[in-house]
Write a structure and sequence with these properties.
Layout (H helix, E strand, L loop, with lengths): L2 H15 L3 E5 L25 H4 L2 H6 L1 H17 L4 H11 L5 E4 L5 H5 L4 E3 L2 E8 L5 E3 L1 H10 L12 E5 L8 H13 L2 E5 L11 H7 L3 E5 L12 E3 L3 H11 L12
Parallel strand pairs: 1-2, 1-7, 2-3, 7-8, 8-9
Antiparallel strand pairs: 4-5, 4-6
Helix pairs in contact: 1-10, 4-7, 5-10, 8-9
Bound molecules: zinc ion (ZN).
Length: 262
């Protein structure tokens, strides 16, 4: 038995032993779907710009066009993407009763499209947008697709104000209600699976540690080391899109190849 196989077996035992596991997912779970990790250097998205000058709340107020130009390739990648085997494995684990909740830092909605039902998007979502002037909230998909295609910034159909996608920008608070639900889920779980997150973005990345402080077990599957590796029961430094389906199979969860977007 190789060390990797033994780690996987140990993770499967922990998963079988609890009915209250949650997953905490980051950009690494979506890279296999072709979505760049926009917070990491080398992804190409920051090469010619400073995050605070394009993707902060202040920058958006003054120059929404700069934000939109920056987000355009990311939004295009998200709309091209389909869920990968890791997203489907998580949906299968939930359907099989092995997983309660997915807490995600991602804004791509691939968990929902793979069939996950209880998903907490603590960094928001590109699927909705809010008018900066009248605060009305809109489904964003059509206007964003038009923007990707023709470059015209999405405007409010009621008052003409600029629409801001419901993603959390730098300087912006995390969504209060969703973050509270995520914290509750972390405090009540028996096991956290950290999947494709290097746990670098606070305060979100503090949630798995809060769970550990409440007595939860910890399994980390990520290419890179994290600050919690030494606290984990199992650490697998590998591609989550490869490892997670194997883990789901070990606990008997049936993975389907569906994409629920219609
Ligand atoms: Zn408006």
């Amino acid at each position: 038995v190789t060390a990797a196989a033994a780690s996987l077996q140990r993770a499967a035992e922990l998963l079988r032993a609890t009915h209250s596991a949650i997953a905490f997912t980051g950009a690494g779970i979506s890279t296999a779907s072709g979505i760049p990790d926009f917070r990491s250097p080398g992804s190409g998205l920051w090469e010619n710009c400073n995050p605070l000058e394009v993707a902060s709340l202040t920058a958006f107020r003054h120059h929404p066009e700069r934000f939109y130009e920056w987000v355009r390739p990311l939004a295009a990648a998200i709309y091209r993407a389909v869920p990968n085997p890791a997203h489907r494995a998580l949906a299968a684990l939930e359907a099989a009763g092995h997983l309660r909740t997915v807490i995600t830092q991602n804004i791509d909605a691939l968990h929902q499209r793979a069939g996950s039902r209880r998903v907490l998007e603590i960094h928001g979502t590109l699927r909705m947008a809010t008018c900066r002037e009248c605060r009305r909230v809109f489904e964003a998909e059509r206007s964003l697709l038009e923007f990707i295609h023709d470059g015209v910034i999405p405007l409010c159909s009621e008052c003409g104000g600029v629409l801001k996608p419901n993603v959390i920008l730098f300087e912006e608070q995390l969504p209060v209600v969703v973050f509270h639900q995520a914290r509750e889920a972390a405090h009540q779980c028996g096991l956290v699976l950290v999947l494709g997150s290097s746990l670098e973005v606070m305060p979100a990345a503090g949630l798995p540690l809060e769970a550990v402080h409440q007595g939860a077990r910890l399994v980390i599957i990520n290419n890179e080391p994290t600050y919690l590796d030494e606290r984990a029961d199992v650490v697998i430094h590998s591609d989550v899109a490869q490892v997670l389906p194997e883990l789901a199979c070990l606990v008997g969860a049936q993975i389907y190849g569906e994409d629920t977007r219609d």
